[in-house]
Each structure stands twice: as structure tokens, then as C-alpha cells.
Amino acid sequence: MTPLNQAIEYAKSNHARYLSELKELCAIPSISTLPAHKADMQRAAEWFANQLTKLGFKNVDVLPTGGHPVVFGELLNAPGKPTILVYGHYDVQPVDPLNEWVSPPFDPTLRGDNLYARGVSDMKGQIHACLKAIESWVKQGGSPVNLKVMVEGEEELGSPNLGAFIAKHKDKLKCDVVLNVDSGILKPDLPSIVCGLRGLAYFEIWVRGPAHDLHSGLFGGSLHNPAQALCELIAGMHDANGHITLPGFYDKVRVLSEEERADHARTPHSDDEWKAMSGVSQLYGEKGFTTPERVGVRPTLEVNGILSGFTGDGIKTVLPAKAMAKISMRLVPYQDPAEVEQQLKEYLKRNAPSTVTWEVKAMGTAHPVLVERDSPGMRAAIAALQATFGVKPVFKLEGGSVPVVSMVKSQLGVDAVQMGFGLPDDNFHGPNEKLHLPSYYRGIEAFIRFFELMA
Amino acid sequence: MTPLNQAIEYAKSNHARYLSELKELCAIPSISTLPAHKADMQRAAEWFANQLTKLGFKNVDVLPTGGHPVVFGELLNAPGKPTILVYGHYDVQPVDPLNEWVSPPFDPTLRGDNLYARGVSDMKGQIHACLKAIESWVKQGGSPVNLKVMVEGEEELGSPNLGAFIAKHKDKLKCDVVLNVDSGILKPDLPSIVCGLRGLAYFEIWVRGPAHDLHSGLFGGSLHNPAQALCELIAGMHDANGHITLPGFYDKVRVLSEEERADHARTPHSDDEWKAMSGVSQLYGEKGFTTPERVGVRPTLEVNGILSGFTGDGIKTVLPAKAMAKISMRLVPYQDPAEVEQQLKEYLKRNAPSTVTWEVKAMGTAHPVLVERDSPGMRAAIAALQATFGVKPVFKLEGGSVPVVSMVKSQLGVDAVQMGFGLPDDNFHGPNEKLHLPSYYRGIEAFIRFFELMA
């Protein structure tokens, strides 16, 4: 057997142990956005540090940031070979609405081919698969490449402290390429590789009216209700064709090349499957674009949350003093989050009535990224996926945003290859998040192959 | 001294004790809408039952309903004289936003001329003032009229069980007139008397899109976000002139008589004071109407609450599965709450996009009421106010809704006189609710006079 086959066989014979270890990891409720889970965040970070130590990594540390810490370690035993910086995150999304989970979000539960838990696909299962690929090499003679691992705890917050962390630890993080495993494939039998990532601009909009909540029977009709005013502002952010109306929003949106468009059209997609997956009877979106284009290459604006007044059971006849909405835009090259913030403020300046006041709070940003396709990292990833799945991977424009990608490009001067094995129906960020175990196991194999191909 | 003056003097010499008793009552957190306060509701009901017993009332009972119980008692010691049914409620509004209270809502606190506590003005202070007027007569020789007292626990819920209760206890509640003390005056030195009450129709609107919360980066732009769709629907409920757009909404809205309009125009009002009281820099409302008309004689539609998606601290990139708004309309004669429900549904049928589904839940209703001005009860109330304040009371159209008024008219065939001493700036339903004590003491005197004038 070749060393590659030995490593792959080692992984296969350890599936059961890997799964039980993954369950242990997913039982830690590392919800980064909730202060009550601060101790769990520390616990998750230490879990990863402990893993790295067991794999023989050096300089393993849980390093402080302005927020949750970053786990780091390095295994530099392949002189003359490239150094790969593996990126992942140990934080997960909140679990609400909790009552819609079939099994508790932090009691990882197997049903059929899937393991159900918050964060199991996004992305504990992905980073775990990569660590198990590393283990398979380490236990079978050693890694063919030099490795650094960086696991952060604030990706679900938009990585607010990662840029500063990378800037501060430039030497420590020096590498030839970043392997970002926070990614997915299109279908269990159809691997894909990300050639572009949308950016993110996330805001809170506050609309304020009266100084305090008022009785709606006494004051209603004489003041502009801030909840109504906020609804009016949100309603105006899309026109009848689903276009976003922020002034200048589309000015920098690029037209795709013929090659990119052709690649994109090859993405397997069925609107009926899309409806089934999301549970809607009818799709919606920007006129003149297909669903894959709407979620991949076009910028979007979504309401992530809205709150005003009394929302408990029963009735309260209140005229609320204020209303708040969380709104985020997915950005495409070459939109700029800072410019989008100005566009949002300009929209509000032009459209907010003088009967209320408004405030915009920027909550998190990520720049959109275009990935260079003809690089050593991309070639290795494509070959690893093809060898593992027996199918040539499809190029994919990722709808989600991964702030690290633009950060390593600007701070370390390196590209990031996105390779992970989540599936579109994994319900990340929603209830009943799952990991498709056959894809997880294939992912381990693909990572094993990738490291050899990079050597 | 006449018996009237003796009763008034008795009340004056007992102000300090009354105040300490009122504090005791306001310390009971009888929030009807929150199930956690069920025991407090019972405690508040028993507090009133105990009061009535101490005043010599007979047949005192805490009677069950489909919801919170009703306190009843009667004092029928004035043969040949009219029977007055005093109505009040012992329930109060929720206290959120709690952090905006200067002193805790159930720790009644004196600052200046005001007592601060949730429910102190709406309406524990009002019903307490009336009971103290009764006490003043009882201790000085006996009540000049026959009295029945009914204190319910669900007014802040829209009195969902009171109609059935009155229908069941018609004989017990038989009376010549109802004195509803859940009311107020315009200013400390300007008494007013209600000649019309707006009705209420309160709804929850649910808009649903995907089967579960989705990742906004993966699905955003391809589905109609239910929060966005709800905002679009709410935004369309008022046109650019502030008119309500529900089909047929104004069909039954009556034109006021010249006399009513003239009375109404005499209501003292200043837009500047209104702005100061509510804390806005600019008013808003239906074009073509003054502020007093907008809050008194015109129907309104207000958002009382809205909730969708993630509203905690930080960011969550979720595309929510559903969105909910609490919306209520104040109705004027002769609008009908059941018809308004149909109008709302018709609006949604016509305007809701086919990309989402919607549901309307009716949460509570009250019919609007016009009060007959030339009745024995109204004449006595007007005279009592004039004698107490030294000023002729102003006729007032009440913006708020008191379901009991239409119920006693339809079930018992009697009119209700609205006489209470809350002030427009008492912050009922909001934080820092207060009772203006000089008005509370004058209220006791006015009630004492009213009972004699009714004899």
C-alpha cells in the first residue's frame, strides 16, 4: 500500500471513534453571540487545543483576542514542502426557535445517515474531518506538508476580531495557502469548489418616535408609530421587481465573464427541489435572474430580525417608543461594505419621514472575494475532490460570506481554498441542523488526498 | 354640617390612610396577560372582596369566569333610591420595558405630587377613590343610594369573559346606571366627561414563508422573506395622507353633529403640549383632521408589536420562517369589530403576495359607544364635577376603549357614566405610570357628591 492508501485505510477503520469524538465536540454549546455561553466558548477552544496537542502539534495555544480566543498550533515536519494554514471556527449559531428541534441541539443524535446537532455542519464536522485527515497522516508516518491550524470563535459574529488577530500574528500565521474548511458541496455525489464568495454588511436600524411607550388609544393616530415607520422604510428597500433601492447599490456589481457564466449555468439546480428544500410553494427574487444567480452572483438584502412593542401572548394596547430591525446585505465583487453602509444611510436620509428619528449601527462586515482558479491550492483541491468522488467538481459562487478569506488575502497575501463538505439542506443556522455522515467520511478522504497533492 | 359635608370632611381627614392603603393595593403585581401572575390576580381580587366586606357590603364574592375572577358585592340600604353598579378592574398592564422605570413598578413610590406604580392610574387609584367615597358615606350615616360593585380582572385583555359573566349574572347585576370609573379628566383643573368611546379590534397577523429558519446567505434573494412581506403589508395599511386603506374601513364612520363638533372644538388642546407630553418633535396623522379629532373621533390603526427572526444582541444571518405583528384599530360609531376583521382579511387577500401565506387571529374587541348626554347619571356626574372643580366639565370623546360600556348597554339595558380622574400624562401602559394625588383626592370628593346627586 502507498502511504496515501495507508492513511485512507486508517481513516476508514476509525470512523466509529471519529463519530463519537465529534458528538463530544458538538455537545459543547459554544454559541458565540450569547454572553451566557462564555465558559462554553473557552471549553470548545480548549477541546481543539487538546486535539492539536494529541496530534503532535507544537506551540499549541489558546490566544486571546478582543473577543473569544483563537486556537493555534503548528506541525512543521516537512522541510521544503509548502505550509498550509487550516482555518475553522469553533463557535455556532444560537438555537432558537428551540421548540422546533426534534432532538436537543446540544445532544448530538443520529437519525438515518445524519447526525443532528447545532454546529455539526457549520462547522464542527468540517474542521473535525480535516483534523482527522491530519491524524490519519500523522499516525501513518507523518504529514506530507507543513501544517498550521487556526480555529477562531467569532465567525458567526462576522469575525469582528480576526482581522486584528491576523495582523498581530502575521509571522506566526505565515503560510503558502489557507485551507478554509468552512464550506460545502452541492450534493452528496456532486463535489463543488468555491470560486467566489459574497461579502456581508450587517446592520441594526433603530427608528424612534415618542420618548416612551404610550397608550395606543390615547395617542394612536396623532404620532407616527415607529414600528409602522420602520415597516414603511423596509418595504421601500425592494422595488416591485425585487431590485434593491439603496442609492448606488448596484454601481460596482460586476458583470460576469462568459466563462464564469457558463460555469455557473452548469451548476445543477431545480427550482422544484429548491422549493422542497426551503418549504415554500413559490419562489421570489430579483427579476431577470435565475435562482442560482439570485443566491450566488447577485447582491441581496434580507431582514434577519425585527422587534418593536409588545410581542408576548395576549394584547397590550401600546404605541411603542421604538422599533429595531436587523438587516444584512450579501455583497458581490466589487461592492464595499463601508460604501454599502453609506448607501443605507443615504436611503434613510432620503426616505425616512421627519416624524421619527433613525440610527444605523454597523454590526459586521466581510468583503466579497473572487478566487484565482489556476493556483496550486485550487488545482490540488480539484484533483482531490475528483479522485474522492469520481466526478469533476463544479465551480460554485458561494452565497454565504466567510470573512477570513478577504483577511488572509490582505494581511498574509495568500489565497484561501474553500473545501468543506456541508450540504445545502443541512439546516445550518436553523433548527435541526445536521451533518450527512457519508459526506463527512468522504470529506476526510478528500482532505487526506489534498495534503498529498499539495506536497 | 350637612351629611354631604360630613362625608367630604371624613374623606379629607383620612387622606394619609387612604394613600397607604392604595400603596398596599398597587404593590400587588396583578398583570392579567402573564400566566406567572395568576396567584397575584387572585390576591388582588381578594383584596377588593375584603374591602367590600369591611364596608358592610353583602353577598361579597370572588366569582369565577372563563379567565380571571370577578369581585362582586352589594350594599342595598337605600330603599326607593336608584341602584348604581360601580365598575372597575383590578388587573394592570405588563411593565416592560422594565429598565425605563425610575422606581420599581410594584414598589409604589411618592415623588412630588405623584404616586408612581404600574396600575396606579389605570385604574387601581380610580376604583380605590370610588370605594373611599363609599366609605366616607358609610362611616357618616350610610350611602344615599343603593350600590353594587363589580371589579373584573381582564380589562387589559379586552374583557374577553366579561360579556358572558354579565349575561350569566343579569339579575345579580340589575341596576339603574353603571358608574365606570376607568376614565380620566383633561387637566388637573379641567374636569371632563366622556360622551363617546372608541371601540377596539385587536389582531395578530402571521406571515409565513419557508418551513423553517434558513441561512440568509444560502437562500436569501430566492424566497420572499416573511418579515419583509409583513413590512410591505403593514406599510400599505396607511396611504400617503395617513388614511387607512382597509377596504370599506370608513364606510360606517359617522359625521359628527354640529353640536358635537362645537363641543369637541372647545376641548383645550395645544399641539406643542401634545408633543412635549409624548416626546416627539413632529406630529403625524390623518390629513384634514386636528390632533383632538385624530385621537377622539377618527378611527386609527396602530402596530402594537412586531416580531420576526433574531432580535437578540449581535448578529445571526437568518432568513426567518415567519413574522408576526400585533395590530389594533380604534373604532368609532358605528364601526363594527367583526366587520373590521373582514376588512383586514380582505385587505390581506388583495395585497398579500402569493409567495407567503398569512393568518389573522382576532385577539379582542370592543364596540364603540355614543353616550346619551341628557340622562340622570350624566346630569349628576356633570353637577358633581362642577361642584368639586368649580368649572363646568368639557365633553370629551374618549380615544381608549372600555368594553364594559357596550356590554352593560346590550346585556343590562343601562347606560354607563364614565367618571374617573386619570390624567393624559399618567403614562398608563408605559413605564413610570403615576397618579396625580391632588386629582385622586378631588376624585373622592366628586364621587361623594355624585352619589348624593343620584339619590
Assign the CATH architecture of the largest domain in chain A. Answer: 3-Layer(aba) Sandwich
Low-confidence blocks of residues of chain A:
none
Over the alpha carbons, how many angstroms does the gyration radius of chain A reach? 23 Å
The class by helix and strand makeup of chain A works out as alpha+beta
- Give me the CATH fold name of the largest domain in chain A: Aminopeptidase
What share of residues are in beta strands of chain A? 15-25%
**CATH class type of the largest domain in chain A:** Alpha Beta
DSSP summary, beta strand count of chain A: 18
Distance between the termini of chain A: 19 Å
> What is the fourth-level CATH superfamily of the largest domain in chain A?
Zn peptidases
Shape of chain A: globular
Name the chain pair with the biggest interface and residue counts per chain: A-B, 99 and 98 residues
Write the layout of secondary structure elements.
The structure is a homodimer of 455-residue chains.
Chain A: H1 3-13, H2 15-26, H3 38-54, E1 58-63, E2 70-75, E3 83-89, E4 109-111, E5 114-116, H4 120-139, E6 146-152, H5 162-168, E7 177-180, E8 192-197, E9 199-208, E10 214-215, H6 216-219, H7 226-235, H8 258-266, H9 271-278, H10 291-296, E11 300-309, E12 318-319, E13 322-331, H11 337-351, E14 357-366, E15 369-370, H12 376-389, E16 394-398, H13 403-412, E17 416-418, E18 434-436, H14 437-454
Parallel strand pairs in A: 3-6, 3-7, 7-17, 8-16
Antiparallel strand pairs in A: 1-2, 2-6, 4-5, 5-18, 8-15, 9-13, 9-14, 10-12, 11-13
